[in-house]
Amino acid sequence: MNQSHEFRREVLKWLCLVAFLGATTMGVLDFRRGQPSISVLEIGFGIWGLMLYLFLDRAKNLVPWSLTLLLPFSLLIVYANAKIESTQTTFVWVQTIPVFSYLMLGRRWGLLFSIIFVTLGIVFYLPRLSPNPADFITELLDLGLASLVIVGFAHIYDRSRDEAFSLLVDQAEEDALTGIKNRRGFEITLKDVARTAKRQQLAISVAVIDLDHFKRINDQYGHAIGDKALCHAVDFIRARTRSSDVLGRLGGEEFAICMLGCTAEQCIKQLDQLRQAFAETPLQTDDLIIAMSFSAGVAQLGVDGDDLFSLFKIADRRLYRAKDSGRNRVVGKETGKGD
To answer: What is the pTM assigned to this prediction?
Structure first.
């Protein structure tokens, strides 16, 4: 479950507590002011806020639960503005609707919800405006423009927050050198792919890949050339695999690739063709021609392991079998292919 989803959960829980404390307090005050009808609604809304708070940790889809809080809250505000005996400051609560809507529903639904209920709030507040036509227009413009500014700022804030969050996620899950997934990003994506494979009843195979004798390249030519060698390997593999295949750097010269819809045998065949082509395509840089090769271990989910942890463990073990067997080969359950 992504962090943006959890952020909205925490916001919703906080708003539930605010609803409980604020609405029940206002309900008691309005009851003492002789407004029992709105008092009952406020206290009922506050109790619902508390009940929702206690339930939210178990909720998966937050949008419908957000609506069960936001909809009665907005209707209550509109109703309060429609009652002549309410104070004139009641309208300030209309201005909170866009903020809560964007935080709880996101940009698209938040905008729609804000437009509907802010408009209703203004319409029901019209009888409170000055009967003088000139003053009426001025006051209406004040309400409308102030509301528009708040909706606009809420929209801009939510968009900026999403963009900043996406950037942070990319930085946290992307390998800075090669531009592919890092270990964390690969494992997160692999879980999503595994769920897709289970839902669609597709095979899924994972290969752990290690560049052969990479330390020699670093020691002989320096880390700058070593970095180019890593990028060369990534570019080569990425250009010759499917867009649906997920490539990640686990660390150092070790990589992993996830192939959806491929059995272990199919994965071995594809990787072995890739291995042979890679061995015939040296890195050419700075007047240097550096031969490279890789070894790989392959495992299939549901055949070699029932969970991702065991799948990685088995694929990694087979990688080391490939290296112990002379490198430049792909090893599956029983078969090792190589030169």
So the answer is: 0.61
